[in-house]
Amino acid sequence: RHGISSDRMKRAEFSEHIIFFAGRSWIVKIFAPFRDCFRREKTGLEFANGKTSLIIPEIIASGKFENFDYLITTRLRGDSMTRLE
User: Maximum Cα–Cα distance for the chain, whole Å?
Assistant: First the structure.
């Protein structure tokens, strides 16, 4: 659909959404259809792009699949953080 491929997919352990690490390059995030998280995250990433010295994931693609919104973003280097840490 978006011309992006990966030979490895690993599901993130901690999230109310469905998140996959697609190799070393991509994150696939499928949003639960409540709390308006998709719109907030997409809008926030678009707004912050180029406006801060922080490294912000780049949106590669977004859309809807079987009534679930999703984002595909670049994967940042480093360790994952969770709300449990």
Answer: 36
- What letters, b where the CB count within 10 A reaches 16 and e where it falls short, cover 45-57? beeeeeeeeeebb
80: how many CB neighbours lie within 10 A of its CB? 12
Per residue in 19-41, pLDDT (tens digit) is 888 878 889 999 988 778 899 99
- How many CB atoms neighbour CB 26 within 10 A? 20
Task: Compute the CA torsion angle 5, 7, 12, 17 (nearest 10 deg).
Answer: 30
Model pTM score: 0.79
